[in-house]
Amino acid sequence: xxxxxxxxxxxxxxxxxxxxIELIFKTADHFKEVINRPIKKVPxxxxxxxxNLFFENSTRTRLSFELAxxxxxxxxxxxxxxxxxxxxxxxxxxxxxxxxxxxxxxxxMRHPNPGAGIFLSKHVNASIVNAGDGAHEHPTQALLDSYxxxxxxxxxxxxxxxxxxxxxxxxxxxxxxxxxKLQGAEVKVxxxxxxxxxxxxSLGVGVETNLKAALEWCDVxxxxxxxxxxxxxxxFPSTREYVKQFGLNLPLLESLKKEIxxxxxxxxxRGVEIxxxxxxxxxxxxxxxxxxxxxxxxxxxxxxxxxxxx
Length: 310
Known about the structure:
This protein is of the alpha/beta class and 310 residues long. The protein has eleven helices and nine strands. The protein has helices at 18-35, 60-71, 92-100, 116-123, 139-153, 171-182, 211-217, 239-246, 250-254, 276-279, 286-309; strands spanning 49-54, 75-80, 106-111, 127-133, 160-164, 186-190, 206-208, 220-223, 261-263. The radius of gyration is 19 Å and the shape is globular. The mean pLDDT is 92.
């Protein structure tokens, strides 16, 4: 197994090889042990400066990255576009060049435009980590999701995973499809027809419009949030209708003839895509996903930093 990543940036899962994912997970195993020690810090990246650029609101992803960076002893600059010169008309390149002139080695960026990270990687001399670009990709979320499946079920290969909900607007769904397929899992998507992209089968995934059938098929169900903030038109009649057809509740879960693992990338709309009693049940690994997120992001940052130092 290679001891270094095949890429200089983490722009999307589609640019990774299977060996990259294996290396990230092996490294995350080590960091998971570190963050469960009384002293949770390692001096690995004392000479690395990382800028977190968030042009879109985010609480969990930003905090998870910040914690991962600080656990590795990196110097961290936080930048929120809502309170910045971007509001005054400054361009993305100007913003980043200003930050890079402060001698930043790595940029973690979330941006509303698909491809923003790729654009940036071609124009600035720093390692770029995509923390979500529009409805395109969210690679670290997919990595922590796969890592959590591996932790609970032993491996990802051969497992049946259904992704339920708003597939059309979800960068988590796309990154998860790429990551799961790369590791040899079977993938289906489930949701209202209006929220499933037209040519999704070309990615090698099945489509199921009946939630119970999807749950009876799968080993793992990843329940996505309905992304109302990305919808300019109505994709289904009402939230009540959506809940009736695609909401996961405990009676439905207990009616299955087997145990399945329930995941959610957060933030949860309790009572919409998933009820509280499911979210808080032993079936769910939602809090494990949050904890694993820090270890996986530590692994990604550590491995990319090793490429910078070469």
